[in-house]
Amino acid sequence: MKLPLVELHLHIEGTLEPELIFELAERNGVAVPWATLAELRAQYEFTDLQSFLNLYYHNLDVLRQAADFTDLTRAYLARAADAGVRHAEIFFDPQAHTSRGIPLLTALGGVTDALGNSVADFGISTKLIVTFLRDRPADEALQILTEILASGYTIDGVGLDSAEVGYPPELFEEVFALAAANGLRRVAHAGEEGPPEYVWSALDRLGVERIDHGIRSLEDAALVERLVRERVPLTVCPFSNVRLRAIDTLADHPIVRMLDLGLLATVNSDDPAYFGGYIDDNLAALDAEFDLGPDRLALLARNGIEASFLEPAEKAALSLDVDAWRAAQP
Ligand code: ADE
Ligand code: ZN
After folding, report:
1. What's the predicted TM-score (pTM) here?
2. Ligand 1 and 192: CB distance under 6 A
3. CATH assignment of 5-328?
4. For tag attachment on the chain, is the N or C end more exposed, with fewer CB atoms within 10 Å?
């Protein structure tokens, strides 16, 4: 039996594997600047968040038709099922597509199609969180959200991502207020490269229920105290932090310290096609590095369940499966 996992920090665009880039380029007659997979893979060396985002946005050029988005999403779900994922709350960046001329509903429709069959085809329940690019104007985000709300497509929440430093959460107060007024859940990337003040702002000005990354919260004792007291989840992405040089090496990663502090930390893959692995790979590497053992692996799985936007009965059912997994371990 695999450890039942919940994934809460996963950009669907960040699951675009090199092989699929070449396949979609051929399907859509898009020229890519790399002759071989090896040449493309050689680009996957990052110095910071922006150096990654440059490649991430560039590679999206091959996604053109709704079916491309469906194939991308199904490929993630298939791999996630293999990892033991039972529930995924998936980020989708509409502006990464509308800004290059792809109609909003082509992209959203393609992703939604795959998610609609996810329980039947992959045994994974899903929620969809539309993430706004904080380095683009808030007015654009407001317009996209307004269009989605009028479209008839269902989304579950909104988030905030892309280049963080210089783009504080409060710029998006109006967008998040509209989301809240429409019953949507709210999350935001904060404290990935940005300072702890951005985490305070995401909580106080945007009303977010989870912080994505949040690792720089550890620099602020009063913030840690609040996050622990209010049980605000942090969706931590260890491979991402190392590959984007927020943390030097996996051995330096604070995930164990976070758990010891009583933070509601979860482990996630962020952009697995870019950072060296999926959620199971992240957990296996942490287990090897820190000797987590079955108790802390089960704790991380339970944290993911608690931090999710599932209903209480769904959480209880998944927790029983984690208990069964733990009971089967030595
Ligand atoms: N978009 C995709 N991955 C991201 C990350 N780790 N941080 C901010 N924006 C992102
Ligand atoms: Zn992210």
Report:
1. 0.98
2. yes
3. 3.20.20.140
4. C
